[in-house]
Every structure is written in C-alpha cells, then in structure tokens.
From TrEMBL:
Keywords: Fatty acid metabolism, Ligase, Lipid metabolism. This is O-succinylbenzoate--CoA ligase. Its EC number is 6.2.1.26. One of its GO terms (molecular function) is o-succinylbenzoate-CoA ligase activity. GO terms for biological process: fatty acid metabolic process. Residues 443-517 form the AMP-binding enzyme C-terminal domain.
Length: 536
C-alpha cells in the first residue's frame, strides 16, 4: 500500500524529528563541544540542509554521500537527505581513497560532503568522481576549504528553515545505502528502507528503555549501519545526542560525567579500552550507564570488567544487512541471583530476536532445518523480517545468494540453547577444522581473555602439515605486563581440550576496522601466504 488514507501513513523516521521539534521545542537535542542545539534549532538546520540540497538539484531517488565523523552535520544528514526522497551514503572515514572512490561511483552519488580532516582522501581521487556535481567542505578542525565548493554553514545559510512537504509516498523507498567492509571482495551497498529504519529505531528505544531523559553518547560511528539506527531512535523519544569526534577513553568519561550520559554503544574493543583506562573509577556517573555492545562476541571477562566500573552491559547481535542489531540478550529476573561470573557468561550470548525483528533461527544451511536446541549442535544463523535490507544495490546475484531459501543468511555459526537463546561460536570463514574437529575461535579467545595479563586476543587457524590447520593466538598484553607464549599455552591447557589449545602465540597490535572489529582476514593472509588455499 502506497497511498495515504485515514488509516494509513507510510512509516518513516523523519516523523520522529517533526514530532520532537513540536513537543520538545526548547529541549537540548544535540551537544557538541560548546555547541548546543534545541530541537527547534536542530529541525531548522535539517530543513536548511534539505532546502539547500534541493537548490543544487538533489531530488527523489538521488544519492548524497558524507565522509564525516560523529559531529552535528553527520547527524543532520540522516534527516536532511531523506527529506527530499534521496538516499544517504555515509562512508567509513578509515577507508582508502580507492575504496572511497568505488563507493561514491557505485552508489551514483551526486553530492559529496567532506570533513576537512579527511579531505586529502578526496583530493587524491577527485578527478575519478565524474558524477559528483556538488562538493561541500565541513570545516570542523580548521577553516581550510580544500575542495572546490562552499563551507557547510554557508551551504545551510542558502537554505530555508521552513519545513518541506513530505515527499515519502512509499515506506519501502530507500532511505540509506550502507556499504559493507568488503573483506571478501568489493564492498556491497546495503539498501535500507524507511519502514525498516522506523521500526528498528523504535526497537532500539524500546529494548534499551530510552526516554526523553536519555542522553546518548556517540561512541559508535554513525556511518556504521546509520549508528544502528540510534540516529533516529534517540530523536524518536526526544533524547539528547552527544556528538563525539574521536573515541578516546578520557573524552568518553569526561562527557559521561559532564552531560549525565545514560546510553552508549560500542564494540568490545572500545569497552576494553574503557575498562582499562587507569582513571576510570575517578569519574562520577550521575545515573546508570547503559552500554550496548556488538560487532564481535564480547568475552565474559570484558563484560565483567565494565560492570565493575558501574556500567550495565547488554549484548546485541546483527549485521549491516539487518540495520545493525537483530537479537538481544534479553535479561531474565531469575538470573539476578547468579554470581557475577555466571551473569557475565549469560550476557555474552547473542540471545533472542528484538521485539520488532521477531524471526531468527539456527539451521543446517544445506537442509534449512533447525538444529536441536541443545547448546551443542552448530548451525548458521538465518533471519527475516521488517529490518532485513531490501537487497544489495545493483547486485542482484549477491542479493539472491544472501536470500536463498527465503531467509537472510548471516554467515555466522551458532548454537541454540534450550531456553531459545542463541550463542555464536564463529563466522563460517573463521571456524578452524583441525584433523576433522571443529574448533570455535570464540571459545579459545574467551579462555585467553581470562588470563590476567591479556588485553585483547584474536585466534585464527594456521597451516599444519599433519592436522591441516591448528589454532594460533595473537595477543595484545596489558600495559606493564610481559606474558610469554608458554604461559598462555599452559593457561589454555588447564581450561580447554588439548586439540583446541593454540600451538603458537604472537604478541603485538591487532589490525582493526574503524568500528573496532578485529580484521582476522589480515592475520590469515599473512599466515597462509604461499599456500594455494586455506584448508576450510
């Protein structure tokens, strides 16, 4: 149904801003350094952005790209661009110029907004962007204008603060295109629709008990699944967005204390940096800090450490293709009686579907039959529902492959516990098959995380002439410690089966994405160099 009637209005998260600007007119909507915008001012700025874009020829079905960190223009883009019926293309700020050029050109973007800290990435490829008709400089760190185009505030000044007519006729219209990390090939453009963004935003607000008194700190990149739809969810309840240019533990704690932050999202690696920040316990939390973590399975140790400094950690799970989180480790009252370690083990599970998501299974991918709910049998997580992408932009074959059997295939391997909660054991590409035995890298990593000298760890399979492949651990020690490979290996021998114990340990930094995910494929590339293929 696409026509408005007395009983039907297309769902769109744009309605959240209209409502909050009406209801919470003088309430603080956005905080960034010394800037504070009320909801009325936020709405006017968004209207100016949409109006100015319209003046330069952007309209329904067009694409507008942003290369920008978590500052107000990036948040404003989540409303101003789709107000015209256009789609937002938010680009990972840590990509290479070549990757950025691919995304801009593949998405057919016509306008490009660039924070001047990252302008050098664009000047290197500017001649390779034939479709970009408008460049806009976002001058946040300095006043330089490296691109041939107006400064952001000047661009807004050319627009009108008055609301534009609602042009969203079909809630299945594309609101954003988010590009995957491209770890197994070129990035794929994941198409989000207005309906999915609306429902996912409400799901986030509902599951995490957000209200108009909520203060959300932007530790999660907005370019990652549109900030898991919190870009729209915080606005839906009239909460306050606290923007953060760089994720630095000291700045995080300062803002938590100063602004009374109630919610933030972060990958486990960010939580590691927060929990191990030496001055963490000096800061005073005005209210309970709700931490939502995803991006990689968090170890129980990481969760326990965060809760010891006063946070309440909720584990969620999802992918770009499902607007970010799809499942949540929904807490049950009887579990409050468990000790801290047991609680942490449960919280490390990926849980059950969000209220709005509803459908998630663990299946034998060949037969599409459910695995037994025994906590042991491994299968693939598959999903369906209103928060599944429309498909990959201009990649029909890849879309059909992802949707085979009428479900979205995640590529994640998990077990189903008797209570219906799922627990990830590995990615399909990460599982180690050693002498015919399956080894979960997550299980081995969780074991190593218990070692008191370990800050971070990643486990992969490396070539072995006898077993095909065996586990190897890459460890980042805590500052001031100096564990040995022998210590780590002996630690594991006391806790897990011998065939799962790493046969080698290497110390050093781990390669990561901008969202904090450890890039295991980089580690594998190094270890498997010179081999025709990895065994599995």
């Amino acid at each position: 149904m696409t026509q408005r009637t007395v009983f039907y209005e297309p769902l769109s998260p744009l309605s959240f801003l209209r409502r909050s600007a009406f209801v919470f007119r003088d309430k603080t909507a956005v905080v960034y350094n010394d800037k504070r915008y009320t909801y009325s001012e936020f709405y006017q700025r968004v209207n100016r952005l949409a109006s100015a874009l319209k003046r330069v020829g952007i309209g329904k079905g067009d694409k507008v790209a942003f290369l920008c960190p978590n500052i107000p223009p990036m948040l404003e883009a989540h409303y101003g661009v789709p107000m015209l019926g256009a789609a937002l293309v938010s680009i990972n700020i840590r990509l290479s110029p070549r990757e950025i050029a691919y995304i801009i050109n593949h998405s057919d973007s016509k306008a490009l907004f660039v924070d001047n800290e990252f302008a050098h990435l664009i000047t290197a490829i500017q001649e390779d962007l034939p479709n970009i008709k408008t460049f806009v400089n976002i001058c946040d760190v300095n006043d330089s204008r490296p691109l041939d185009g107006p400064e952001y505030e000047e661009f807004l000044a050319d627009g009108s603060p008055d609301p534009l007519p609602n042009v969203i006729e079909d809630e299945m219209e594309v609101i954003a295109i988010n590009y995957t990390s491209g770890t197994t090939g070129l990035p794929k453009g994941v198409m989000y629709h207005h309906r999915g963004a609306y429902l996912n935003a409400l799901g986030e607000a509902l599951e995490h008990k957000m209200s108009s008194s909520s203060v959300y700190l932007w530790t999660l990149p907005m370019f990652h699944c549109n900030g898991w739809c919190f870009t729209w969810g915080v606005t839906a309840v009239g909460g306050t967005h606290v923007c953060l240019r760089k994720v630095v533990p000291e700045d995080i704690y300062l803002l938590i204390e100063r602004e009374g932050v109630t919610h933030l999202c972060a990958a486990p690696t960010v939580l590691v940096s927060m929990a191990n920040y030496p001055r963490a316990k000096e800061y005073q939390m005005k209210t309970k800090l709700n931490v939502i973590t995803a991006g990689a399975p968090p170890s129980p140790t990481v969760i326990k450490n965060m809760e010891e400094i006063g946070a309440e950690v909720t584990h969620v799970y999802g992918l770009t293709e499902v607007y970010g989180p799809h499942t949540i480790c929904e807490w049950q009252a009887p579990w409050n009686e468990l000790d801290t370690s047991e609680k942490a083990k449960i919280k490390a599970r990926q849980g059950v579907a969000y209220i709005h998501a509803e459908f998630v299974r663990v299946v034998d991918p060949a037969e599409m039959t459910d695995v037994p709910a025994d906590g042991q049998t491994i299968g693939e997580i598959v999903m369906r529902g209103n928060n599944v992408m429309l498909g990959y932009y201009k990649q029909l074959e890849e879309t059909e492959k992802a949707f085979r059997g009428g479900w979205f295939h995640s590529g994640d391997l998990a077990v189903m516990h008797p209570n219906g909660y799922i627990e990830i054991k590995d990615r399909l590409k990460d599982i180690i098959i050693s002498g015919g035995e399956n080894i979960s890298t997550v299980e081995v990593e969780n074991c190593i995380y218990e070692h008191p000298d370990v800050l971070e760890v990643a486990v992969i399979g490396i070539p072995d002439p006898k077993w095909g492949e065996v586990p190897k651990a890459f460890v980042v020690p805590k500052p001031g410690t100096n564990p040995t490979a022998e210590e780590i290996i002996n630690f594991c021998r006391e806790r897990i089966a011998r065939f799962k114990v790493p046969k080698a340990v290497e110390f050093g930094e781990l390669p990561k994405t901008s969202t904090g995910k450890i890039m295991k494929y980089r580690l594998r590339e190094k270890e498997w160099q010179g081999y025709d293929k990895r065994v599995n």
